[in-house]
Design brief:
Helix 5 crosses helix 6 and helix 6 crosses helix 8. The longest helix has 30 residues. With 211 residues, the protein is an all-alpha fold. The protein has one domain. The protein is globular. The protein starts with a helix and ends in a 15-residue tail after the last helix.
Length: 211
Amino acid sequence: MRKHIILLFFFMAGLIVSGINPRNIFHWIGEALPAIIGAVILIRTYNKFSFSMFTYIFILFSCYLLFLGAHYTFSRVPYFDWPGSLFGYNRNNFDKFGHFFQGVIPVLISRELFIRKEIVKGKGLVSFLAFCVAMTTAAVYELIEYIACSIADKNPVTFLGTQGYVWDSQSDMLFALIGALFAIWILKYPHDRSMSRVKIPPYRKDGQKQC
C-alpha cells in the first residue's frame, strides 16, 4: 500500500508539473485526460484488484510520456528530433516512442487480468488475446483522436502530431504492434515474477478471496 501511494504521489507531481504553462492548454487537456481517466479507474478498482508493481511502474512511465506530450505537444518535445535525422528526414519522433508504450501497457494489463483472475487458460491464448487487446486499443485511440479533433475543429497537424506524414496513423499502430510484441516476448518473464510476488491474492469467480 505504501509503495502504491508513492506511485500515486509521482503521478500527481508529474500531472501538476506538466500543467504549468503548457504550450496549448486545450491540447494539454486532451492529451492528459486519458492518463487522468486511467488513474481514476485504477483507484476506484484498487480494493477489488490491485496490479503488480511491475505493471504499475510501466503505467506510471506511460503517463509521464503523455504528460510530456501534453506539455510541449507531441511534435515539439525536446531532444526527439535526432532519430529522424539518422534516416534523412526532419521529424520529431516522440509520438512513436509513446505509441510503442501504447502497445506495451494494454498487454501488461490484460495479461495480468487474464492470468490472475483465471479468465483465460493457456499461455499461448493469453498472449494472443493480450496482443488483440493492444491492437484494438491502438486503433480505437486513433479513431478517438480523429473524432475529438474533428469535433473541436482543431488543426490535426498540431493535435495529432502528423507533421505532414500521410501514413502517421498507420505507423502509430505499427509502433504499438512492436510494443505489444516486445511486452509478450521480452517483458513477460519479469512480469510473471512480479505477479508471483503480489501479496493480495486474486478474487475467485464467486467473489471470495482465495486463501
